C-alpha cells in the first residue's frame, strides 16, 4: 500500500523558542580525529516538538524509557479549534468532537498557534486548555494529547498560570503530552495513523520527538 506522509514536527535548530526557564539548544559541527563529521548537541528534554512523560510532573510517575514502543503508534484525531491569544480551549470545544474521540488513541489540537512559531508571543500568549476540558479528555481511551502550542497550561508570564492543572490531570491518568506540533492544517478533522517515538532516555522526564502521520493513497 502507498501512503502520503506528513511531518508534523518542528526542525531542531539554534534559536528555536524554548519554554520558560529552559536552556537554549546549542549545536556544534566538528570534524572528528578520523576525519568524519560529527555534531555536538546540547538540548533540554522539552525543546522543540517533544513529549512529556508522567515523571515530568509526578514524582513516582513513569519515566520515558519505561513506555513500550507500541504506546507511541496509533490513530490520531486532529481537532480544529481555532483560538486567539490567551483564549482557552473549553469543555464544549472538546465535547463537540466526542464521536471522533471515541475512535482514536491520540488527540492533536490545532489552534492555529503553530503559524506564530518563531515569534516572541509564541511562548506566552498562546491558547491553553481549561482543566474541565482536560478532565473530559480522560473519559476517552486516549494515550496522548498534543497541541500546536508550547504548553497545554497557560504561561507564567501571562498571569493566568495557577499551578499546572492540565499537566496534572492528563499525566496522572497516564495520558502523555506532546507540545509544539506543526503542519496540522492539512489533517484537521481527520483520523490518521501516527507515529511519535521518543528517545529512550534512562529516567527521562520527556524527550524530543519526531511526529509523523500517514494516509493511504487510493
Describe the structure.
Helix content is 11%, strand content 29%. Strand 9, helix 4 and strand 10 form a beta-alpha-beta unit. It has four helices and twelve strands, in the order ββββββααββαβαβββ. The model has no long low-confidence stretch (mean pLDDT 97). It is globular and about 60 Å long. A seven-stranded mixed beta barrel has the order 4-10-9-7-5-11-12. The longest helix is centred in the last third of the chain and has 8 residues. Helix 3 runs parallel beside helix 4. The termini are close together. The protein is mainly β and 218 residues long.
Compact overview of the structure:
This protein has 218 residues and is mainly beta. 11% of the residues lie in helices and 29% in strands. It has a 7-stranded mixed beta barrel. A two-stranded antiparallel ribbon has the order 2-3. It has a two-stranded parallel ribbon with strand order 6-8.
Any chance you could write out the topology, listing elements then pairs?
Blueprint: E1 3-7, E2 26-31, E3 37-42, E4 50-52, E5 73-80, E6 88-89, H1 91-95, H2 98-101, E7 106-110, E8 128-129, H3 131-137, E9 144-147, H4 165-172, E10 176-179, E11 191-198, E12 206-216
Parallel strand pairs: 5-7, 6-8, 7-9, 9-10
Antiparallel strand pairs: 1-12, 2-3, 4-10, 4-12, 5-11, 11-12
Helix pairs in contact: 3-4
Amino acid at each position: 500500500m502507498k501512503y502520503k506522509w506528513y511531518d508534523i514536527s518542528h526542525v531542531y535548530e539554534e534559536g528555536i523558542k524554548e519554554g520558560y526557564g529552559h536552556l537554549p539548544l546549542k549545536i556544534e559541527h566538528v570534524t572528528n580525529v578520523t576525519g568524519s563529521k560529527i555534531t555536538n548537541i546540547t538540548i533540554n528534554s522539552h525543546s522543540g516538538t517533544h513529549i512529556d512523560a508522567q515523571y515530568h510532573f509526578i514524582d513516582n510517575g513513569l519515566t520515558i524509557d519505561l513506555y513500550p514502543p507500541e504506546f507511541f503508534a496509533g490513530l490520531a484525531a486532529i481537532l480544529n479549534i481555532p483560538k486567539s491569544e490567551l483564549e482557552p480551549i473549553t469543555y464544549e470545544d472538546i465535547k463537540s468532537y466526542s464521536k471522533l474521540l471515541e475512535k482514536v488513541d491520540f488527540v492533536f489540537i490545532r489552534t492555529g498557534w503553530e503559524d506564530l512559531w518563531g515569534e516572541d508571543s509564541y511562548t506566552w500568549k498562546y491558547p491553553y486548555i481549561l482543566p474541565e476540558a482536560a478532565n473530559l479528555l480522560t473519559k476517552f481511551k486516549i494515550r496522548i494529547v498534543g497541541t500546536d502550542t508550547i504548553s497545554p497550561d497557560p504561561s507564567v508570564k501571562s498571569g493566568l498560570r495557577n499551578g499546572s492543572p492540565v499537566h496534572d490531570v492528563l499525566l496522572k491518568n497516564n495520558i502523555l503530552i506532546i507540545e509544539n506540533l506543526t503542519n496540522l492544517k492539512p489533517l484537521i478533522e481527520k483520523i490518521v495513523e501516527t507515529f511519535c517515538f521518543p528517545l529512550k532516555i534512562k529516567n527521562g522526564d520527556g524527550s524530543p520527538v519526531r511526529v509523523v502521520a500517514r494516509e493511504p493513497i487510493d
